[in-house]
User: What shape does this take?
Amino acid sequence: EPEVTQTPSHQVTQMGQEVILRCVPISNHLYFYWYRQILGQKVEFLVSFYNNEISEKSEIFDDQFSVERPDGSNFTLKIRSTKLEDSAMYFCASSERKPGQGSEQYFGPGTRLTVT
Amino acid sequence: AQSVTQLGSHVSVSEGALVLLRCNYSSSVPPYLFWYVQYPNQGLQLLLKYTSAATLVKGINGFEAEFKKSETSFHLTKPSAHMSDAAEYFCAVSDRGQAGTALIFGKGTTLSVSS
Assistant: This one.
């Protein structure tokens, strides 16, 4: 069964450093997403991406964040200058159709980011 | 704005007992509703979804949920709990139509199952 994959599974970085989290969505999916889950808190939407541009972003997704689909398979989340409060589990997801059509989102296993 | 409230951050049941996890939503239009499960150190797995075809939705692993518009609820149930059901469960809502693409999650309910 096709699945969303994410690398690395765990990333440790120092405050102020740039990190890139990588995701490979399901191959025939057109919509891509990033969510994060701070330890003990709920899953929060960061950004959605379709047709090589951002469709929607939350207030969390400020200028320190960017997303890119550098090739036909990868989808990346970059944090330019990490802060302690960026420590969280980051989930990538993809869906075949628009969410407004009830298309479910398939989630990857997550990347745990620890900022020290 | 849409929101989801999950009543009870922690639910404990005995093996074989009924599982009931509560979810209430707030939305200006009937939304799409989802239940996801997260096992320890794993990602989110879709249990079931409501998209208006039927108010009683059956999902994987014996779970089902009923959409009740009058109560703005989408509670998750399973007649008989199994030890392997121990996990965190998230209710989520998304906007019907073109407007939104995000899933809005509740805070989650941790289900514990004792033998």
In short: The mean pLDDT of chain A is 93. The first strand of chain A starts at residue 5 and ends at 7. The radius of gyration of chain A is 13 Å. Chain A touches chain B through 27 residues (CB under 8 Å).
